């Protein structure tokens, strides 16, 4: 008869802030993943990324976590050609859509990583290597039992402080009021960050903005500067 002591302990699984769903992928998105990913995609690896080599130049880098279909990422990259942009997204249809947008716009200052953002912050970005991190409309996980899945936790904020350069910016938007309260509480515990009087007004109006307006939601938009 086996005993508890003789059993192999189960490996703990990290709590994810997302559930990966394949979704429906168009022919164009599949073609983009096959043909354009080698040009714009960055593989996940267990070592820090050399951003200067990745983009072929030295420039301020903005990271967007969960870029969806890439509409805001493309908007900001087009309007700030002197900067570089690294997008993180796990859902393949969104990655494919963003790749198609990059091809249409002829942009060269964007690269994409299709991997868990927490692990990218932990293992793929070097300390003080990026100038800004954008987190727009993250999944609010409204049910109380799912609150542990919310990406904005103490660990996440500590990781952003690690990879941001001096005076780096953390910009967050949500249209879910209870999540906004949670985010405010988490950031209030972080002495490394100072709240700004106003968030930058350079992001694109997204489908989440439009949906929120239809539902009568109000966007909660804040930014913090790394001290």
Structural write-up:
Mean pLDDT is 90; it is low at 1-12. The chain has helices spanning 27-35, 37-40, 51-55, 71-79, 92-105, 117-124, 154-163, 177-188, 207-215; strands at 61-65, 84-88, 110-113, 130-136, 164-174, 193-195, 220-226. 35% of the residues lie in helices and 19% in strands. The termini are far apart. The protein is globular. Strands 3-2-1-4-5-7-6 form a seven-stranded mixed sheet, sandwiched between helices. The chain has nine helices and seven strands; from the N terminus they run αααβαβαβαβαβαβαβ. Strand 2 (84-88), helix 5 (92-105) and strand 3 form a beta-alpha-beta unit. By secondary structure, it is an alpha/beta fold. Helix 4 (71-79) runs parallel beside helix 5.
Q: What fraction strand? A: 15-25%
Structural classification: alpha/beta
| Mean pLDDT, all residues | 90
Poorly predicted segments: 1-12
Separation, N- and C-terminal Cα atoms: 59 Å
Count helical runs: 9
Shape: globular
Rg on CA atoms, Å: 18 Å
Summarize the structure.
With 227 residues, this protein is α/β, with parallel strands linked by helices. It is 35% helix and 19% strand.
List keywords for this structure.
single chain; 227 residues; alpha/beta; seven-stranded mixed β-sheet; 35% helix; 19% strand; globular; disordered N terminus
């Amino acid at each position: 008869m086996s005993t508890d002591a003789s059993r192999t302990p189960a490996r703990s699984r990290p709590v994810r802030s997302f559930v990966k769903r394949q979704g429906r992928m168009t022919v164009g998105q599949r073609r983009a993943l096959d043909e354009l990913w080698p040009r714009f995609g960055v593989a996940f690896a267990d070592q820090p990324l050399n951003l200067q080599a990745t983009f072929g130049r030295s420039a301020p880098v903005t990271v967007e976590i969960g870029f969806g279909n890439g509409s805001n990422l493309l908007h900001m990259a087009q309007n700030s050609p002197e900067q570089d942009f690294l997008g993180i997204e796990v859902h393949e249809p969104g990655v494919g859509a963003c790749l198609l947008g990059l091809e249409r716009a002829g942009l060269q200052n964007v690269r994409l990583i299709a991997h868990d953002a927490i692990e990218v912050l932990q293992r793929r970005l070097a300390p003080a290597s990026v100038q800004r991190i954008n987190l727009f409309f993250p999944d609010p996980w409204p049910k109380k039992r799912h609150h542990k899945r919310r990406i904005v936790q103490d660990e996440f904020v500590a990781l952003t402080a690690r990879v941001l350069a001096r005076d780096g910016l953390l910009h967050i938007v949500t249209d879910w009021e209870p999540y906004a309260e949670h985010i405010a509480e988490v950031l209030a515990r972080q002495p490394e960050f100072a709240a700004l009087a106003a968030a930058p007004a350079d992001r694109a109006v997204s489908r989440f903005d439009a949906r929120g307006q239809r539902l009568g939601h109000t966007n909660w938009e804040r930014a913090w500067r790394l001290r």
